[in-house]
Structures
1.
Amino acid sequence: MAAEAPTPPRTRRRRWLRRLAGGLTLLVLLPLALVAWLLLTEAGLRAAARAAEWASDGRIVVEAPEGRLWEAVRIGALRVDTADLRLRIDDFAFAWQPARLAERHVEIDTLAFGAVAFSARPSGEAAADVAPPPAVELPLSFAVRALSVGRLSLFEWVDVPDPDAPAEPFFELHDFSTALASDRRIHRIDTLAVSLPFGELTLTADIDGGELPFALSARGTLVGAYDARDYDIAYSARGNLLELELLIEAQGMGVSGDAALVLTPFEHVPLRRLRAAIGEIDPSAYVEGAPHAALTIAAELESESVDEWRLAGPLRIDNRAPDTLDNGGIPLVSADAALSWSPQAAAAERLELVLPGDGTLTGALDWRPDREGASIGRLTAALELAGIRMQRLDARLPDVRVDGRLDAEGDEAEQHARLDMQVGDARIRADGEFRMAGGEAGEPAFSAAGTLSAFNPAALVPGAPQAELNLSFDTHGVLGEPLAATFEWAFEPSRFEGLALDGRGAIAVEGERLADADVLVTLAGNRLAARGAWGRVEDALAIDIDAPALAALGHGLGGRARVEATVSGTRQLPSGRFQLFAEQLRLPGDLRLDGLNASGHLEAGLDGPVDLSLGASGLGNADGDTWLDSAALVIGGRRSAHRIDLTAASPDDDSLELRLDGALLEGSTAAGDGARSRGCRRADDFRWRSRRRPG
């Protein structure tokens, strides 16, 4: 057999080159084929979905993918669940025209989301200022012919969701639809429509993204209803992305209004100016039981700083239909103020309220928030009142004029006030304080002190007696269980119904108990004094009345009287003793009593002794007629068993003798339970004698 001829070197080199070229071609064609398979086949789409789930360790799940990425895709559900994000998209659909890429244009026919649920873990960091982009010009033009979202739901973040208790979204929108287009520089939103919880919103907008400041224009509407009342809002925006003017016109719900805002979205303070006017507002049309009015409100606020929130400007309120409080109205004609607001403070300077009858209230209000956010903050007020007619505010009030000043300051824990008021002819000066936890056990506590001059009760309360009272007072106490309070006063020279009035007093109460009393009052030469306590078994209140000049009091009184008494025991089981002396008495109704003496004592309880002796002489009328020469009443025994003897004699020798035996049984009103008395009475002896001769 003949030997094979050796392969020439040149032939071997050609063969090696062909193999190398084939390998390189295969390396290029295989990825291209893989990409084509992924883009052009449904099997490739499903493989890509499985690869995404595998690569994300199950954090991304694609369910029921259909179609081809090169033309149109439908996905039953897409779920993304990471440590900081949860997203679920149901019924996703996408269709586009990839051939348009050759024209440097992206054409999307459909981009649809059936339902989207989204929640993200809060970052816990304050949002940083965002700088405007240098340009928003795109490398390709694009058009989205139909972009829609059936429902978008936003949820609060929960570390471990409970599958048995699905969370409720804090915000949700429905039926979102729009079309987008861009020629690379001019970007347009065309006929956006969405259903929000508060109405139906539409928007059309375009922006020039060529270079800063990016000219922008927009317009739209918001139509809805609140509390069965329709409203219609039209808005428009003009300017650029760095400074945008937003104009709003609204009507409905019985009012109309307009507003203009200058917005600076990329500055630390995104609001530069706000102007708003609205009216007429009738509060009674919106809140049951609210007062009626016809209010118009106008405000114009401007930012005073570009580095921090600080707005200031005028506010005015006009009321076309002021009315009194008793007639269900608001007694306000107009209100003006220079407002200022920042996160650190809010104030109303140059405040002026004009009230019916040309009364005014002027001054300033200042509010400072609590730095820790634990309370409502601190409010300071300095107010001047001038020419305020009280009856023009409420017809039930007296027709007096009020002038004066009120200074107040306080927060949730403590309030202080100082006032100096002229109410008609009276003047009151006072300082007061309230502390939410001022008591020894943390109860609310109060205190007030001041003076009252030329006070006439008849000027404020119809039918009250005429007076001119001048006094100083001091009161303090604790609003606990029980109430504990002390009130002290001292009269300066005063008049009561034209009579000289003087005195002083101090009273302390603890719940229903009069814990301490020290009172001395003189009126037209007549004196009342009381000292002690009453309300407990061991308490005793001494009362001394010395009235040598009853005639000076008027009202048909006359003569002189003296009473000394001691009241003790409790309200349920009272006890005490007294002595009474009077002579030449004149009583209302032209009654005359020449003399009266009485004494007695009563001990607590049903078995407590009862002792009363009373003697009277010369009962008749002021013309000198005498009906009784004398009368006597004697009661002795105990509450549970006592005897009553009554005797009387007339000038005509008629006489009466009556003896009654009786008792207050257990359960009667004397026992203190408020039940009807079950006392029994028996007449053991009754005598009547008459020595008058027959006419």
2.
Amino acid sequence: MVLKGPMTRPFRTGRAALLSCLLLRLTSSPLLANSTPGEAHASRASESVAPVDYSAYGSFENLGTPRYRYVIRDRAGLAEEAGPGIFPNDGDLSNDATYKQLLSEHRLDGPLDKFRPEVDPVLSYYKWVSQKGAQNQGLRLYNIARSLEEMGRLWQALKAYHAVVVHFPKSVTWQDGSPWYVGVSALDAVYRLLEEHPEWKISLVDAKIRVKNGYDKKATNDAFEINPGEWADRLAGAKRVAPDNLHTTFERGNVRFVRAGDGEWQIRVNGRPFLIRGISYFPTPVGRSPDWGYKPHSDWMTSDENRNQQIDGPYDSFVDANGNNKQDADEPAVGDFRLMEELGINTLRLYHHGANKELLRDLSEKHGIKVLMGDLVGAYTVGSGAAWEDGTDYNDATQREKMRASVRQMVMDNKNEAYVLMWVLGNENNFGHGNNARKDPQTYYRFINSLARMVHSLDPSRPVAMCNGDIEFLDIITRECPDVDVLAINAYRGKYGMGESFWTSLKEIWKRPVLISEFGCPAYNGEQSAEDAENTQSAYLVANWKDIESHAAGSKTGNALGGVLFEFVDEWWKAGPKYDASIQDKTPQTKGPFHGGWIYEEWLGITTQGDGDKSPFLRRLRPVYGAFQHGPWHEPMNFLPSARAGTKPEAADAN
């Protein structure tokens, strides 16, 4: 599923109405005339399947090397075929009526980061086209491509994305102190569009942009391997096939982790393929905060605020179906565990130990949901004994022993429990939240590997995962963590998923299975109505899941074990100038690849707590709940013997 485009969704604001008018006027715009996908596709040269036949206008030199370049011989001819706004055709704005109108109304005033394609693609398009002297032409062209795509001009968008790959493959910009490789993202977009539009009947062969040393915080040491690829007639799409030559790597009861001979990985339950459909769960009551002693990771497991001898969130929550912020007679308590089971959840992620074994046993035995059991390993100073203002120091022997003891306790307390699926060490510690892992990654990852060895010695029947923030330091992780079995990655990469380069890099470098340990999207964005923002969240998360699923064993890279949605219910303590846990704050926190460009951490739930008056019991199900329940998670896949899992079990697997 993809977001509804601005040309098709209902308009509810004055700005949306104006955008609609502008889009209609674009058919007469000199820049965008005759550029609809169908018209452009029909008019391409019959002798070439390429959207733009670059070989007719220049030559490629040093393919596959850092010295790659494309030399233009016929600039005028290339500009005409590429089309307005696509390099080297800068677009003639002097006679464009729409541009003149926007300029006269000062609607193009302001910094570039104000103009986001998903918010207002028309304004974004004209703003970026007008930046002919931009220092980063790759970034300019990439945003032109995004704007064209958001306007539904997909063939032109394909041309623009590929033009980035051809002309500006080394383009780089910066996000939160780390390099973002624009050319790599553009190539991901090309592959995505081609997959979404088989009717174009073309494919791009052998294209690649590899960035050696591209996983650190520097760009000065990068070495590129570049090939913009060759266009060819589309072959029949690869069908999902069952991996063969299976070898069991871990086994406990009816759960096995297996590796196929071609480097694919899979979990099997009762002999059937199994994908992790996970959820993060922090049912923090409104008004409670870790700033005032509440422990979001564990207190919910023992909370009984209504004193009925049942745990609140898991058993006493109810669905506010009519949205009146009350529990009506026809809205009985159902409990979050049941809501998770009915959604299709099969795995719950616990970030730091479990505080109630009986509760977790019930989760597993009655609802078919297992646990990713974690230890934060000094993230946010948890487990290290360090003061918050100092942060965990992975060079400190005393702190290391405290963290080692914490991990040992986690394993010894839970290793004989059937609810544990795998062990997870850390939570994006590489981002440096309350620790020095980002400053000294080698020391941190070596320590993680020593913990993984210890866990294997205590429990050889389950795999050990390490949770990283995105794929930063991937080369160091691969070198320093040979005893880690699964790389768990918190990945927030945009509404289309992770991108093909993400999965390919992990397949080529990490060579072991991958779990997306967090993916999420806020249900508020400051740009849309409440209803539209929730629908945007739904489309974003479903598309992310489909990307994960398409890289599971038997399809594409075959290295995905599944993913964990972040999160089940909104938490109100995370944001705002005063971090007031009694208010659901709408203050943007950090920039991110979401609608409007910001993350709102108090709005990440797939359910809400309403107006907060009936917290921690009230749940209102957002559209994303139904989208998963009736969509990609419709087919049951849990740990209950009665659950179906998509395909018949094999008669025998090689061990």
3.
Amino acid sequence: MQTSRTIADISARQISFVDQRQVTTEKLEAATVDIINGYNQFQLPRYWGETKRAAADGTQWDLYENNLLSERHIRYGGYGGLAYYHVSDTYIALFSHFIPCGAWEAIYILDGLTQNKSDIQPDILHGDTQAQSAPVYRLAFLLGIKLMPRVRNWKDLKWFKATPDEIYQHIETLFSKETIDWALISCHLPDMLQVAQSIRAGRLSPSTILRKLGTASRKNKLYFAFRELGRVIRTLFLLEYIGDEELRRIIQAAQNKCEGFNQFTQWVHFGADKITDNIRDEQLKVIKYNHLVANLVIFHNCQTLTQALKELEAEGMILTPEILARFSPYRTHHINRFGLSEVKERHPRPQTMTLNSDRADVSRPGGRSYAFTHESLRLALLAGCNDLRKRMLFEFLWNTGARINEALAVTPADIELDGVRPLVTLTTLKQQRLTKAGRPPKGHRRTLPLLDADFVRRLRDHLHTFTRYRTKPVWAITDDTARNWLRDTVTACITQGIRFSIDPISPHTLRHSYAMHLLYCGAAPLTLQDYLGHKDFKSTQVYARIRALEVGIGNGYQVRFGMHPDEAAALLRRAGQII
């Protein structure tokens, strides 16, 4: 509801419909990966951190009490779940998960790296105190991941010697009396490698195997083998941790970035104090949505900072790596979460422009241009119309040459987009009413190819989003409504400084533009007659005469608008045009 209030011409019902019919967690993850890959192309994040490092941490999201995931935990207070994020050292989040508050975070810490499909592939993972245990250390080691968490009260952890005979002069008190069982590790090493290989192959997730190996049952020999190997890896890390101050600083900085991202995502989420869905999949989608939007804001901030720094550099300012490293993409003061937004494609254009035809000044009697081009139409739609249904109707008229009543009669059943060649079948409303049972008369319907691949993609998305029944019209509106849509769009364009040399612009103007475009591309007049549905070839020849007029002007021939069709054809041949 809050989103619909901030986006023009889009209702809460439309947003809900798209969310339920089109959006899945897989698609949200794919979109997030695209943003991460684009972010990775910037140079600025290289000054902020290393792509080989990442940190994991969770933050609580409030839930209603009566649902399967909701738990009350003393660490957070209140009922909720835990959004668990894996954040790159360059500030952008790589993966998100939604887990119970009472779960041991270490179980899920490896999932983010094994399921991460972006170009940023870290192999050093930091976490908080809850992100470490002996089984996690050994599984991370087998997967080629170096686990380096921030450890609180590290002196209370058990340290293990390689053999009981070893004595360390200054740190002997840190080690327990137990030693590593190397024989157990050697015996079960093939089994442990097989588990790691299964995870790498995607057969199971690390959290699944960690839950299975989380019990110290005497029958579970594999658990004890994993634990012994984990003790080795953890002892080596703790020795490195206490002896390297720079390492402790790096771990602390990485974890601070992850906690900063948690606060950033809470700021990005607005409109509700808690997740109001009680369905597990919908709760996960909220987390994925929030993850995607947060990454988009980070991408935007990085791009804006890059532009600003380039301008400063062009003015003579010297930007050192130390200065660049001080910046962060977690900036929010310039973003108005509750402001009005527009959903539109951005194309650079001058402030004032005139939309004419492709070629030289092709005019009809009275000095009016006959048609405008596909690119001109796109610019007009982008500038004057933000409603997706209206834009698709205008594009459909241009890409098919349909009469307005034919376009309004089209149903999803008339459109075939998944075959070898995308097709649409057109039938006029009048012909539909006059047709009786039985075989329809000749010329009742005509089938057209859809030649623009981008239009086919947009049309497919439109049908999936806005249509529910295959036999109901795609645009269930009247002829007058369609003409009002176009009139309003033209008015909006004029107010933005776009002037048209065509007056008035009607739905039939788009049909003329379609015909002229086919002639420009070398379509034969008989093919054009078939596509336009003309019974009389004379109706089609008018376009050949207009085309001849233009060619004549461009080549210095003496032409007349009312010239005979044969003369127009001859002129085209003399000019070297294909008809």
